[in-house]
Design brief:
alpha/beta, 8-stranded mixed beta sheet, disordered N terminus, 15% strand, 336 residues, 8 strands
């Protein structure tokens, strides 16, 4: 038995298969709750009661004071596959630059409630504004990533007087995915997502997001999703996650982006061709999807006060993959 164990361990070390290490260890790890109980965040987490479609929910958020306050606040909006804790280096950068930093987990994600009802961008936008009201913040800078970019667009359109700048980091939603992907029943999506393994999810992230990070940097994202499977409330989490995918598909924002008058900066990874739903599109259409850097340039050209910056050799996780260039772009833009 010892010889078998040592051989297996040697093979794992030799091949550096972190996914295998995670899979072997997952059963011995205490499961997280579906509000990520047991998963550490870099700053204290607070809860704001909200009501969406008659349902009593809680919206989690971090509120980080500035090192030397400049009187301004940045709100960070996370992506679909990431808890807001992944903003940690950006929070530190902005705090050191004098900004108060407010970092919510949107309802349906991270440490916030997982609703029984459907997710909608309008509700998420209202929740975010309710959080600003609660914190007595009249106007903020919005820095958004991925799905958060779609939400940022909706906030900019619905509440233009509440934001000073809009910075869209590798946003999705720059095209209307309904033009390429047929509608998929929610139950079918739930079945597909439930069958996904931790190893399959890692490969999915690496492929879809063209991630330029070491494998161990992706592991917390794997854990945040798959260590909830031991929770008895996991089916509720899964339905909320699938609802977020349906929200992306059913509530496009691409047609609204040219109407935004708020100063806007797109920060794109040159290698980021993420396009939700691409595997479900007819093969002949798949190659046309996810031309995100070009789409950002085209949209910026139609807007009254926008530009797009493309960072070479960078994928979807722009602020983690190119932190110094990202810092330069963000602080320059917010300083306008």
């Amino acid at each position: 038995m010892n010889r078998i164990f040592l051989a297996a361990l040697a093979a794992a070390l030799l091949t550096f298969q972190l996914t295998s290490t995670y899979a072997a260890d997952a059963t011995s790890r205490e499961p997280y709750g579906i509000a990520l109980e047991g998963f550490a965040y870099p700053y204290p987490v607070h809860l704001l009661p909200v009501v969406n479609d008659g349902e009593q929910l809680s919206m989690a958020y971090m509120d980080v004071a500035a090192a030397r306050p400049n009187g301004r606040t940045v709100v960070l909006l996370h992506g679909r596959n990431f808890p807001s804790s992944y903003w940690a280096p950006v929070i530190k950068m902005l705090s050191e630059a004098g900004f108060r930093v407010v970092v919510p987990d949107q309802v349906g994600f991270g440490k916030s409630s997982k609703p029984a009802g459907e997710l909608h961008f309008d509700n998420l936008a209202r929740n975010t504004i309710a959080l600003l009201d609660h914190l007595k913040i009249d106007k903020a800078e919005i820095v958004a990533h991925s799905l958060g970019g779609m939400l940022g667009v909706r906030i900019a359109r619905a509440y233009p007087d509440r934001l000073a700048h809009l910075l869209l980091t590798a946003p999705i939603g720059l095209e209307d995915y309904r033009f390429y992907v047929p509608p998929t029943p929610t139950e079918k999506m739930i079945e597909t997502e439930d069958k996904l393994t931790a190893d399959g999810y890692r490969k999915q992230l690496q492929t879809n997001y063209a991630i330029k990070l070491p494998a161990e940097a992706i592991t917390p994202f794997i854990e945040a999703r798959f260590n909830t499977k031991g929770s008895p409330d996991y089916p509720r989490w899964l339905r909320a996650f699938v609802s977020s995918g349906q929200m992306i598909y059913r509530e496009p924002v691409a047609h609204e982006i040219p109407l935004i008058a708020t100063p806007t900066l797109f920060v794109m990874g040159a290698d980021d061709h993420n396009a939700p739903g691409r595997p479900l599109a007819p093969e002949a259409l798949r190659a046309k999807m996810g031309q995100n850097a070009e789409l950002a340039k085209q949209l910026a050209a139609k807007m009254p006060n926008a530009r797009a910056e493309v960072i070479p050799d960078t994928g979807h996780l722009v602020f983690l993959e190119a932190p110094e260039r990202y810092k330069e772009l963000v602080l320059s833009f917010l300083g306008r």
